[in-house]
Design a protein that fits this description.
Elements: E1 13-16, E2 20-35, E3 38-39, E4 45-46, E5 59-63, E6 66-67, H1 71-80, E7 86-92, E8 95-101, E9 104-105, E10 111-112, E11 115-131, E12 136-139, E13 155-161, E14 164-169, E15 178-182, E16 188-196, E17 199-204, H2 207-210, E18 218-219, E19 230-238, E20 241-252, E21 263-267, H3 270-276, E22 287-290, E23 293-302, E24 305-313, H4 314-324
Antiparallel strand pairs: 1-11, 1-18, 2-5, 2-11, 2-13, 3-4, 5-6, 5-7, 7-8, 9-10, 11-12, 12-17, 13-16, 14-15, 16-17, 19-20, 19-22, 20-21, 21-24, 22-23, 23-24
């Protein structure tokens, strides 16, 4: 006799969405996105950051034991020191490090550290599905990375907000298109709690904005149920109007748990090709449906062929959602 242990994933029903939304992410502390030498008031060149060991990709969380939540707070703390050495606490690869740094006074009578920092990131993407059991929503199918350092943004908080489509730039070979949206005068949809390589997740505060219909709940497909055959995606190209478009699943990578390139998806719908040329930025997160079940969400486009891209398995997104709930 041999005893084995099996992990059984219970059936889960979710509500496919396809709504376009704005995403605002706020970093933990301020993220260092660049470093540069400084010319002091004596015309000499200084690199004050070297004495602290701080590098691009690190996050500053405290100055002189004062919590830093924004770029403005960092600037105020540095200004108050009047050139005196300050104690600095920052995160490197998730580890908290305490050090010190001496700001340099410039000819303009300001004090600088030689660091370029950012405290927020924003973008436009598609909401994939709503999970009524946890009141959570999944989106994008991939994480939001900082454009300068190419790393995942480590967030402290964030929010989903309404967005208005102002323009659609059609995709072409070697020139990906995009949905251009405005979040001016936007309304808050919900609170973002997690930014991961398999998507961005949050709690919903206002279901009415999304017109969520709980009667449209569907099963999340098992991987073995996904066929290299016809399917569809749901996305928003006109304000407030989610539509379903035909696609074809060309290849399924059943054993891939490492990244969000679980399947190859080909756009076949002539209406969508006419509007966008294929997969464009902003469509990431569009739910992929097959045989009445959710099988995944769009994540990437092939730069060499905008009609083709990747999707992530729905079960990977469900797993990320459960890691928090």
């Amino acid at each position: 006799m041999k005893t084995i242990t099996a992990n059984v994933i219970p059936n889960r029903k979710v509500i496919p969405l396809g709504n376009l939304a704005g995403l605002k992410l706020y970093t933990q502390g301020v993220l260092v996105v660049g470093i540069s030498s400084i010319e002091g008031e004596d015309n000499k060149i200084y690199k004050p950051y070297e004495e602290a060991g701080i590098e691009q990709g690190d996050s500053i969380i405290k100055i002189n034991n004062e919590v830093i939540d924004s770029t403005e707070e960092l600037l105020n703390c540095v200004s108050k020191c009047k050139g005196k050495k300050v104690e600095i606490t920052y995160l490197k690869d998730g580890k908290e490090i305490n050090s010190s740094i001496t700001p340099v006074k410039t000819s303009s009578n300001t004090y600088k550290l030689g660091l370029w920092v950012r405290d927020a990131a924003a973008g436009v993407g598609t909401l994939s599905f709503y999970d009524e059991e946890t009141n959570s929503v999944a989106s994008l199918g991939h994480g939001i990375q900082d454009v300068d350092i190419g790393e995942m943004v480590d967030i402290s908080s964030g929010e989903f907000v309404t967005t208005e489509v102002v323009n659609i730039k059609k995709g072409e070979k070697d020139n990906p298109g995009r949905i251009e949206g405005s979040i001016d005068n936007s309304l808050e949809i919900g609170e973002i709690y997690s930014n991961t390589k398999f998507g961005v997740y949050g709690y919903i505060k206002n279901k009415n904005i999304l017109n969520i219909d709980t009667s449209k709940a569907v099963d999340v497909a098992l991987r073995k149920e996904i066929k290299e055959s016809d399917a569809s995606i749901i996305c928003t190209l006109d304000n407030g109007k989610e539509e379903e478009y035909s696609v074809k699943i060309q290849k399924v990578f059943l054993n891939n748990n490492e990244d969000n390139k679980s399947m190859i998806v080909k756009i076949t719908d002539k209406r969508l090709l006419e509007k966008t040329g294929g997969i464009i930025q902003g469509m990431s997160g569009s739910p992929i449906m097959q045989n009445g079940k959710l099988i995944g969400a769009l994540t990437h486009v092939l730069v060499s062929d905008p009609t083709t891209g990747y999707g992530v398995f729905a079960d990977l997104m469900i797993k990320e959602l459960r890691n928090v709930n």
